[in-house]
Write a structure and sequence with these properties.
- The chain has one domain.
- Helices cover about 0% and strands about 65% of the residues.
- The protein contains no helices and five strands.
- It has a three-stranded antiparallel beta sheet with strand order 3-4-5, with no helix packed on it. A two-stranded antiparallel sheet has the order 1-2.
- A hairpin with a 2-residue loop joins strand 4 (about 40-50) and strand 5.
Length: about 60
């Protein structure tokens, strides 16, 4: 499994957080809690040839 460490700002608290992205999965969407404020973040990303095509971290609707 090839992993990419990706840093982004939490859409709630604004703190910089990181996550490991499995680059062998071309597209994924899931919910992960912020490691700082513990609120749920909706993560959606697309990877092509081991690099990000897109990455989005947004507030959830619940």
């Amino acid at each position: 499994m090839d992993e990419i460490e990706h840093f982004f700002d939490c859409p709630y608290c604004g703190e910089s957080v990181s996550m490991l992205i499995d680059s062998s999965v071309q597209e994924q969407e899931y919910i992960e809690d912020c490691e700082v404020c513990c609120r749920p973040i909706e993560v959606h990303y697309r990877v092509k040839d081991g690099s990000f095509e897109s990455f989005n971290a947004s507030r959830t609707d619940f």
